[in-house]
UniProtKB/TrEMBL annotation:
Keyword Chloroplast: no
The organism of origin for this protein: Acanthopleuribacter pedis
Sequence ranges assigned to domain Outer membrane protein beta-barrel in this UniProt record: 49-212
InterPro entries in alphabetical order: Beta-barrel_OMP, OMP/PagP_B-barrel
Tagged with keyword Signal: yes
Protein name: Outer membrane beta-barrel protein
Signal peptide limits: 1-27
Sorted UniProt keywords: Signal
Length: 212
């Protein structure tokens, strides 16, 4: 089911922009350059991450978590977004994000520490409602769906590597502000919430991009 939804998500992202380009003859003030590309760097906050990682470590990785789990490394994400402006109030975007290693450490009853590494990938498709404050400055709200994959890896005391992963398709939503330096270049500040199964990720992203 997850693979089916992911396939539909990619197909929708691949066909949405050409269809909109064919149907729209006026895209507001950016009609000459309706397409845009943004590169974003994000700081992440995992909601209820300790409880989630503890459940995975004990239940699926078979680790002794009696000594508790501590977060060992903060996480950053890198996101690439392509968008299309339908008119001054509506846009659509497709994004892919890679979350750098998140590390957690669990201690067993013998005092041995085991590091658990998480790597996360997301791909999403969203619709934006845009409100222009001025010709250069605008705010937006967005909602859509996202595919995600979270890979877990742990190295046990005996040197054994244990792996598992989670995948799914879930809703996402966010708010943002965008400043246009000129007709081509822009900056973007975004807050976004992904609901990933039993927990969530909050993204605070700063990006720069251009229209083409």
């Amino acid at each position: 089911m997850n693979a089916k939804w992911f396939t539909l998500l990619i197909l929708a992202a691949a066909t949405a922009v050409p269809c909109l380009q064919a149907q729209s003859t006026h895209a507001g003030p950016d009609s000459s350059t309706p397409n845009y590309l943004l590169f974003k760097v994000s700081e992440l906050s995992w909601d209820d991450d300790i409880a989630y990682v503890t459940d995975v470590a004990a239940g699926r990785l078979g680790l002794d978590t009696s000594g508790g789990i501590q977060r060992d490394k903060a996480t950053a994400a890198f996101k690439l977004t392509e968008g299309y402006t339908i008119n001054k109030n509506i846009a659509v975007e497709g994004s892919a994000a890679y979350v750098d290693d998140s590390k957690f450490v669990t201690t067993d009853t013998t005092g041995f520490d085991t590091t658990i590494r998480l790597q996360t990938f997301t791909a999403d498709l969203t619709a934006l409602g845009v409100y222009p404050f001025t010709d250069k400055f605008e705010g937006y709200g967005q909602a859509g769906i996202a595919y995600y994959r979270i890979d877990f890896e742990a190295l046990t005391q005996t040197g054994e590597k244990r792996k598992t992963h989670d995948t799914g398709v879930e809703p996402l939503y966010g708010l943002g502000l965008r400043f246009k330096f000129n007709e081509q270049f822009m900056a973007d500040l975004q807050a976004q919430q992904h609901d990933l199964g039993e927990f969530g990720i909050s993204f605070i992203s700063l990006g720069f991009g251009f229209r083409f």
